[in-house]
Design a protein that fits this description.
Length: 106
């Protein structure tokens, strides 16, 4: 999950030479508390409120400054029913064709 990048409890240590999930060593106790609350609730409305608060903290502290967008493209013949279930936030190699056995001709 993206929040592990900013979880202060997952900071790297001198022993692992900045190899942890939070390699930047960003720490904010309020954000850590909100991460716990987010993972501890199933209520979608509450998750939205918590995510907003987390976003405000990250916008104020700016621990990360994304300078580029990752572009992922694929081409599928108009004669195929494919990628209807694809989650477009996934960037793992091969993830677009993971259900190719379910594709069908039109």
């Amino acid at each position: 999950a993206i929040w592990t990048t900013f979880d202060g409890r997952l900071q790297s240590t001198p022993q692992n030479r900045f190899g942890g999930t939070n390699a930047s060593n960003y720490a904010n106790q309020e954000l850590d508390r909100l991460i716990d609350r987010l993972y501890g609730t199933l209520d979608r409305t509450e998750q939205g409120h918590i995510s907003r608060q987390m976003g405000e903290i990250l916008a104020a502290d700016l621990p990360s400054l994304p300078l580029y967008l990752r572009v992922t493209m694929t081409a599928v013949s108009s004669r195929l029913d494919a990628l209807a279930d694809y989650e477009w936030t996934t960037f793992e190699p091969g993830s677009m064709s993971r259900n190719a056995h379910l594709w069908d001709r039109r």
